[in-house]
Amino acid sequence: MNRHVLLVSPDRPGAYRSITAALADARDGTLITVAAGRYEENLDITHAVSLAAESGAGSVRIHAASGSTVVVDAEAVQLSGLTLSAADREAPVIDVRRGQAALDGCRIAGEAWTAVLAWHEGTLAVRGCQVTNPNGAGVVVTSVGANILERSEITDVGSSAVVVAERGQLSVRECGLDRARGNGVCVNGQGVATVEDTRITDSGKPAVAVEQDGRAHLRKVTVRGSAALDAYLVSRGETTLVDCAFSGSRGQSVHIGGEAAPLLRGCAISTVAGTAVHIAERSRPRVEDCRIAGTPAGVMVEGESTAVLTGVTVQAASGTAVVVGGGATVECERLTVTGESGGVRATDATVVIREGDIIVGRGNGVELDEKSTGRFTGLTVRATGGAGMTLGGGAQAELLSSALRDCGAIVGADSELHARDTEFAGSDGDGIRVTGGGSVTAVACRITGARGHGLNVQMSGRADLTHCGVFDNAGDGIRCNTEEPVRVEDSEVRDNGGKAVHQLRSSGQFSAERLDVGEERTAAADQGFAVQAPGEQQARHTGTGPLAELDALVGLDSVKKEVTGLINLNRMSRRREEMGLPMPPMSRHLVFAGPPGTGKTTVARLYGAVLAELGILSQGHIVEVSRADLVAQIIGGTAIKTSEVFNRALGGVLFIDEAYTLTNQSKGTGPDFGQEAVETLMKLMEDHRDEIVVIVAGYSEHMDQFLASNPGMASRFSRTVEFPNYKPSELVTIVRNLCDKHYYQLTEDALDALNRYFEEVPKGPTFGNGRVARQIFESMINNQASRLATRPPTDDSELSRLTDEDIEPLLELALALQEPGTSPAAGAAVAPAGGSGPPADGVALRRLMGLVGLDPVRDALRSRLDGLTHLRQAGQPLTGLANVVFDGPEGSGRRAVARLYGHCLAELGFLVTGAQHRLSLGDVPVRWPRQVEARVAAAFAEAAGGLLVLDADREFEERTREERASVVDAVVASVRQAPDVVLVLCGEDTPLVDLLRASAELAEVFAEYLRFPDYTRDELIELTQRHLVWYDCELDEGARRVFDALLADVPMPDGAHGAHRFAEWIVRQADSGVITAAHLPELDDSADDEDLMSPTDDTADPLANLLRPLAPDKSGSLA
């Protein structure tokens, strides 16, 4: 039996002239083939029919001016190769009410709240289709049934790409959901979505959102470039994410809340701007075998949530890898943390770890505070720059069968550590230090190889050791400076550098029984471990510990001598006090004066650690602050902030960087809140003179002014330690040490090139010293990676070898900054020969001055670069003088100018790299203060040595006043900590001015305000023609005449962006590098709708139709 076939054609004899007419004569099973052409009609399908394009996909266009283009109310309907569109803002293009609609190879373009809708009793089977809808969603499903979306693309939709709501069910496989302004996939109500092997990119809202009682199952889904969040999981229904990959989010990656209990298994999260996995609101997720890399924080759990992490790996987090707070509980099994920052931090929370490895650099391995509790079994911690475990604020921890290697434990502030079968080995300081009312109970533990003491029990501390081994430590085995109970029984305390057991205070609560202290210590044991006699210990370091670390620092000989003298003075003071001899009052507070990057913070940290070893300070920790951490902008607020910071530093060192900014900042124009901070500090220093060391730091000349600003200042800071610039040979040594630490080798040629670099590079007043050495090392690593990418290595050893090729680009830049015949001395400001002339035009400066239009901006930046050069020649400080504000709309060229400005600063030696980084202020998370500060600080750290563009975008304007203020405060605080970053603040008109008026501190950061003028018509034409050249295209004579005629009376697109898009449209019409008149059609209706990017209006100029989409809409964004 032959199939019933009908033909639709506008001109063939015997064919139906419309599809509607053919449908009227169709019956179940009819095939309707449609000839090529455009059909304007509404199709109500009530029979099981098939519609197919006779000439293949794209040849048939069906458009509805109002209502839906296709309404399906039949058992089964198949649409193949059709292009379907509708202009109605209220009706979807395809409305499936009953039966199944199968779409194969179709293109759907909508204008309503959704392009495709399946509801009531309708189901969808969409395969190989393309869906767009600038005003709404792509596909919405509310029907129960086997809805399928396969091998299809949904792009540039105005809201969500896929929505599954009410009781809808949908399976999505092998699809691409790109550039949705809303979600990529949204599931709510009681909807169920299964998504597999699908790509979701550049979503304006969370790429995946599962809410209410929705259920979602994602497998092998790739999410990239989300504006704020990759996955928002707050549903009470079952949700699973398996083998998914998330990267590039400009906010957090995965947020879990609303008491949800999703499963994440085998997922990878990388390079996101915020926290990788954020768990809140009493949620109960399971995270299994997931990998997190390159994020500010790995996992954050709060809000009384309970999270189970199994086989989770966190690598290279810029902040703490796992953060727990707010009454939450985290249970980890096989946790792996590697990176430079902290491992696990808990405040008012519970942490359980079974079988974990934590390897960190600068931060602490495990940190418990505010009555947190922890239980750790089979945990290994390596923390080369911090403590393996710190307990404070009444925290309690239990360590079972674990190991702290290359690090120790600090127990303080009424906290308790219970350890069994655990090893504390190779600590840079003490193996275990107990302070501030803390206590440690250790059974069958080993404390060995510490550079300080094995167990150091300081004032108010308690300890109980049974069946332990304390040996091979550089200092004392057990050192006690407390009157609280200390008991050591059935233990080995031997082969330590100092005494086996050293009591600094006589106490009836000290007990030592059945100790093995070795043959050489038997006499000491017989004497009951009495207090050491005065003078028995010499003023020396043992080869390990903080003093040895100070001695091992590169250079700084005068600093080492000065600080060692201070330490000896404090040691003698302590001895005389123990002997009951009087000691004149002495101030321990210091001034560290010198340029940045010379080790001031490092020396301050070591100074505090030594004073803690001597028992002068109870903890010896360091709290580093700047003006922003001490000063508030309301009367009375500064005293509160300053007191809070001071109290945090009690028992240790308060390090105030750029302390001179606290004085004379108001210039007599208003209240001097900085002076209020100084006065508060002076009173607190007097009240707590024996409990804290305050160190103020900054440039030498500025610190002299700081000390002279208050009569009592000089008496409290009685000694100034001068930090000199590093010599070139010392900078080379710093780079070599970094290479050794990270397992790199320098060839002889690389060493020669490195020496030449540090000999030739300008060393003005703002030269970064050790910071520059670190940046050079990182640049060499980057150059090596690029070199090996183009020339793959034949030997694995090349991966660890740095050659002269890796330093040569940096050396060429340094040499380019020198005039022939000059040889700058280390620490001297470098100036070109002639002394006062402007800098020679480099490549970047020539490109900047060669930009089209923007004459006032280009001239102002040229003058600023000249002025910076003259100030450097005169030896004047340059901090902040390169920071500028760009006021202009989108498309005004702000980013291009900022990029070239950064390159100019690098060419002239004001920046190390000149690389441009961008921070959208609207994307900075503001859920809690530390989150804001961490995100902004991470952006500044990433931009070190380069230029950071701060974008005051529309999202930032729409935030509350409090949210905007918190972001601004974080920016101002980071500016103080990052003098090697040049800032460009971008914004537009009134909101930008209001932002600067609202924060005087932010306004003070910038040296100049530049308004970007509008492009003239001739300049926009020139931009268009230049962009054509960039595409290797040119207009012939005929095309140039048509081009000029077309642009004679039609408004040009706004801004450089619009001009570039116009040029790109012209290129798309060309079939060679020569644009002819044929590629620029006459002003008629022949231009294709798709090419012109808007429907043709017979009464309008086609070129105007082309340019209209290039102009900004009312919201300011390009269509």
Protein described:
The protein is an alpha/beta fold and 1119 residues long. Among the domains are: 1-159, Single-stranded right-handed beta-helix, Pectin lyase-like (Pectate Lyase C-like, 3 Solenoid); 545-722, P-loop containing nucleotide triphosphate hydrolases (Rossmann fold); 728-816, Orthogonal Bundle (Helicase, Ruva Protein, domain 3); 843-1011, 3-Layer(aba) Sandwich (Rossmann fold), CATH 3.40.50; 1018-1110, no CATH class. Helices cover 27% and strands 29% of the residues. The protein has 27 helices and 73 strands. It has a 10-stranded parallel barrel with strand order 43-45-48-51-54-57-55-52-49-46. The protein has a 5-stranded parallel sheet with strand order 61-62-63-60-64. α15 (843-849) runs antiparallel to α17 (894-907). The chain is globular, with a radius of gyration of 35 Å. Mean pLDDT is 82; it is low at 520-543, 666-670, 817-840 and 1083-1119.
